[in-house]
Design a protein that fits this description.
The chain starts with a helix and ends in a 25-residue tail after the last helix. The chain is about 60% helix and about 0% strand. The chain is an all-alpha fold. It contains 14 helices and no strands. The longest helix is centred in the first third of the chain and has 22 residues, at about 5-25. Bound molecules: manganese (II) ion (2 copies).
Length: about 325
């Protein structure tokens, strides 16, 4: 079964969107909007630097953890298993990543001690570290129903962040990305996923005031991402808007990049950003996107074909797969 070309291209765009958002935002991570404006005017080029002193096109933990997660899912034939995710993240940490979040480090160290891949529930572990890496789950999830998606999201997230607010954000991102991959418009995703999430978790309401200098708290992160996503009319506009808010800019860039990549597709990602991205990362993201989609498709043939002329007889159970 050959996957629908526009669908695969959107999957690649979601993954590359994460990577270019990370590489773009990392330059201005922990800066305020005022500092960014003074130094760059509007920051719109992938140029490296920042507090991590990156090479141009270099990515950070957001992308490298996603790639570790994607490899684990692929090795398990498309399943998301907590123990495999924990082992993959642990191996990633041993590889001396360029940066690592505090919650990620603490809970991976306790995994080493306990062997339990699920971190203890914690009201404090509502950082954005589980959400920033979640895109491979969306690509593996095409034929699953919403409950199966939620279980898979939690298996990967709870390795480091066992927290209901983090869970809500991770689920929102994954369910939204998969709807965008099917060609659904932003207003559909707003109605089906964004508004219901805000009903259940009012802290995500993002319209009160412009969220600048977002912290690593997932609520700040998602408010900034949703403001940029809802108000932009292009991939570039969305990413430039979100990273120029400063704060945890590589992570807002990464999450906005997944969503806007899936929504606007490959043609919308500026060529200059794709060219600037570390070539090995570029290849790995594309390759994983293709493999994850093809594994998902082979488990459920026809799963990604319902929105443009594919068969309807093999339509998957998930309502998320329909375009209405
Ligand atoms: Mn990072
Ligand atoms: Mn960050």
């Amino acid at each position: 079964m050959i996957a629908n070309a526009s669908f695969v291209a959107r999957a690649e765009a979601a993954y590359l969107g994460l990577a270019v958002g990370d590489a773009l935002g990392a330059t201005v991570e922990f800066m305020t909007p005022r500092e960014i404006a003074r130094q760059y005017g509007v920051h719109r080029e992938i140029r490296g630097g920042g507090w991590l002193n990156l090479k141009p096109g270099q990515v950070t933990d957001d992308t490298t953890m996603a790639l570790a997660l994607g490899r684990a899912i692929i090795a398990d034939g498309g399943e998301v298993k907590a123990m495999s995710c924990a082992s993959a993240f642990d191996a990633w940490m041993r590889g001396k990543p360029v940066d690592i979040g505090n919650t990620v480090r603490r809970n991976l160290i306790s995994f080493r001690r306990s062997g339990n891949p699920e971190a203890p529930p914690s009201e404090h572990d509502a950082g954005n570290g589980a959400a920033m890496r979640v895109v491979p789950v969306a690509l593996a999830s095409l034929a699953w129903n919403d409950d199966e998606v939620r279980a898979a999201v939690r298996a990967q997230s709870h390795v480091t962040h066992n927290n209901p607010v983090s869970d809500a954000a991770c689920e929102l991102i994954v369910l939204s990305v998969r709807d965008f991959l099917c060609g659904n418009p932003l207003r559909h995703v707003y109605r089906r996923h964004i508004a219901p999430t805000i009903d259940r978790f009012p802290e995500f309401a993002y319209r009160r005031r412009r969220r600048e200098n977002p912290s690593g708290w997932i609520v700040d992160t998602m408010q900034a991402v949703l403001q940029s996503l809802m108000d932009a009319d292009s991939f570039e506009h969305c990413l430039v808007d979100v990273v120029n808010r400063g704060g945890d800019a590589d992570t807002t860039g990464a999450i906005a990049g997944m969503l806007a990549g899936a929504l606007y597709g490959m043609e919308a990602i500026p060529q200059r950003w794709l060219k600037a991205l570390d070539p090995a990362v570029h290849r790995a993201c594309r390759e994983q996107a293709r493999v994850l989609v093809s594994i998902a498709e082979n488990r459920h043939p026809g799963a990604n074909r319902d929105s443009d002329g594919g068969t309807t007889s093999r339509r998957p159970a998930s309502a998320a797969m329909t375009s209405g």
